[in-house]
User: Which sequence fits this backbone?
């Protein structure tokens, strides 16, 4: 599976970015919180692939599900 997130102290000071880009993952969250769509985000950051965004959101959902099950 292709990497989704990359961290490197030499890239954006170690901020988690979408792999192969300099786009912080937090920027996607900011867009979604503001009510923008994934398409809006991708239009603004064409170096990020749709597959990366979907894979990230699926991973987050899986982690939330696992935490909820562990807490039950």
Assistant:
């Amino acid at each position: 599976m292709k990497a989704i997130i990359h961290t490197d102290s030499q890239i954006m000071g170690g901020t988690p970015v979408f792999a192969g880009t300099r786009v912080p993952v937090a920027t996607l969250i900011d867009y979604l919180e503001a009510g923008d769509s994934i398409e809006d985000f991708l239009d603004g950051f064409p170096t990020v692939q749709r597959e990366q965004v979907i894979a990230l959101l699926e991973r987050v959902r899986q982690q939330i599900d696992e935490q909820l099950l562990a807490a039950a």
In short: Residues 9 and 15 are 8 Å apart (CA to CA). The chain has one domain: 5-71. The two ends are 31 Å apart (CA to CA).
